[in-house]
Amino acid sequence: MKKMIKNGVIVTATDQYEADVFIEKGKIAKIGAHLDDAADEVIDAKGAFLFPGGIDPHTHLDMPFGGTVTADDFETGTIAAAFGGTTTVIDFCLTNKGEPLQGAINTWHEKSKDKAVIDYGFHLMIGEVNDDVLAEIPDVIEKEGITSFKVFMAYKNVFQADDATLFRTLLTAKEHGALVMVHAENGDVIDYLVTDALQKGHTDPIYHALTRPPEVEGEATGRAAALTGLANSQLYVVHVSCAEAANKIAEARQKGFQVWGETCPQYLLLDQNDLEKPNFEGAKYVWSPPLREKWNQDVLWDALKNGQLQTIGSDQCSFNFNGQKDLGKDDFTKIPNGGPIIEDRFSLLFSEGVKKGRISIHQFVDLVSTRSAKLFGLFPQKGTIAVGSDADIVIFDPDKERTISAETHHMNVDYSAFEGMKVTGEPVSVLSRGEFVIRDREFTGKPGSGQYIKRSRYNSTQTRQAITVQ
Ligand SMILES: NC(=O)NCCC(=O)O
Ligand SMILES: [Zn+2]
Ligand SMILES: [Zn+2]
């Protein structure tokens, strides 16, 4: 099926111009003015931007956590992602100590097979490093195309790895061309602060934030960056929430270390006061790292603008308020961490970033798509609108206004952290490899049509070239 998209304005991380896009066999076959190739279907995109499909580098779909499982799986989560303009997700595959890495990867293939409506890849958690794990890594990279490994520096006795594991993962990643990702919080200190808080009878959601102060995130970020420099390796810090962590990343980059940072819409737009909402509503806002004092938002926006943070992830990790978040009604440590963001990541950044003049439209594309494609080995197959790239395209109305609500969202969860917020700009139609997944705000995709994507190795030249896009 050949398609022609006419009259739209193509926007990439570097360019903005009006042109027609001709799609054949799922790829962008031609771009040009007034193309007259015969197409089975012509789509008029007058008045719309054509953005490359969003790439969400940080999701947790169908993930067990705290005795429960995320409300969104690969079907509901990717449908919601598509409604929000995202055409690729990279999900975190959890591993269990003592289990072969391949076993965990197989589990994640089972979770996603026949379910995903958009393309997807996996990052792989490394919980411990031993000879068996090290021996498996080359195959994981080569055969599975998994080229990013995640080390948790927090969640003591659950996911947390020690510094030796982090350091050996950095060395191995350097050797084989992979990118190491860290959840950077000092889990040991958090454990002490949490025990102390509970002993004092502090059980409300706000204590989640008070027992994970910015210092523990800054310290862990600085430690991971220092180990990266020592290993001469490469690091990606997920969900940066505060000035302390952003500053450590900037310092490391100043020294020439290959350290990259991601933040998320929740840290740009919500703050610690949300955890104090009455009737246990604060539980809806429990993320790790926690929401911070409001002034941190300006620091994060500035870091996005000046290139010190490079991507926006959703950290999609949804739990219903009723029946899941309320597991922690009497003890904040039992509130499952995370929230539903996958659907709103793209629109929130456009509305709050581009429309409010905080970032340029090219920075927007870079942050929600192109830079993740480059860092995680998907470029140029994905992350741009170019001849030869997958036809993952968002037809976006930049002026459409809407109000975010759990009543109308497509995530399988009973609340929205952004309930009532007005946003400007909406993905009207979304194509994944040339097929409509969303058409005029209706879902037209099919579970199982999303493909597992094997990714290329980390490429320092490619990522370096992309350091500043204004
Ligand atoms: N971020 C969060 O609170 N939940 C998801 C798991 C993680 O990314 O740490
Ligand atoms: Zn995390
Ligand atoms: Zn996460």
What order do the helices and strands come in, and which of them pair?
Blueprint (H helix, E strand, L loop, with lengths): L2 E4 L2 E3 L4 E3 L1 E5 L2 E6 L8 E4 L4 E4 L1 E6 L4 E2 L2 E2 L4 H10 L2 E8 L7 H12 L6 E7 L5 H14 L3 E5 L10 H14 L2 E5 L3 H13 L6 H5 L3 H18 L2 E4 L5 H12 L3 E6 L1 H5 L25 H11 L5 E2 L32 H10 L6 H15 L17 E11 L18 E11 L2 E5 L2 E2 L16 H6 L5
Parallel strand pairs: 1-6, 2-7, 8-11, 11-12, 12-13, 13-14, 14-15, 15-16, 16-17
Antiparallel strand pairs: 1-4, 2-3, 4-5, 7-18, 9-10, 18-19, 19-20, 20-21
The structure holds N-(aminocarbonyl)-beta-alanine and zinc ion (ZN) (2 copies).
Protein name: Dihydropyrimidinase
Family: Belongs to the metallo-dependent hydrolases superfamily. Hydantoinase/dihydropyrimidinase family.
Organism: Domibacillus iocasae
The number of helices is: 13
Weakly predicted, low-confidence segments: 465-470
CATH topology of the largest domain: TIM Barrel
End-to-end CA span? 36 Å
**Main β sheet profile:** 8 strands, parallel
* Spatial extent as radius of gyration: 21 Å
Spell out the key features of this protein:
single chain, alpha/beta, TIM Barrel, seven-stranded mixed sheet, 13 helices, 22% strand, disordered C terminus, binds N-(aminocarbonyl)-beta-alanine, binds zinc ion
Structure in words:
The chain has 2 domains: 89 residues, Urease, subunit C, domain 1 (Roll), CATH 2.30.40.10; 330 residues, TIM Barrel, CATH 3.20.20.140. The protein is 31% helix and 22% strand. The protein is built from 13 helices and 21 strands. The strands form 4 sheets. The protein has an 8-stranded parallel β-sheet with strand order 8-11-12-13-14-15-16-17. A 7-stranded mixed β-sheet has the order 3-2-7-18-19-20-21. It has a 4-stranded mixed β-sheet with strand order 5-4-1-6, with no helix packed on it. Strand 15, helix 8 and strand 16 form a beta-alpha-beta unit. Helix 4 crosses helix 7 and helix 7 packs parallel to helix 8. The C terminus is likely disordered. Bound molecules: N-(aminocarbonyl)-beta-alanine and zinc ion (2 copies). One zinc ion (ZN) binds next to loops. GO terms for molecular function: hydrolase activity, acting on carbon-nitrogen (but not peptide) bonds, in cyclic amides; metal ion binding. InterPro entries: Amidohydro-rel (IPR006680), Hydantoinase/dihydroPyrase (IPR011778), Metal-dep_hydrolase_composite (IPR011059), Metal_Hydrolase (IPR032466), Metallo-dep_Hydrolases_sf (IPR050378). Keywords: Hydrolase, Metal-binding. Pfam families: Amidohydro_1.
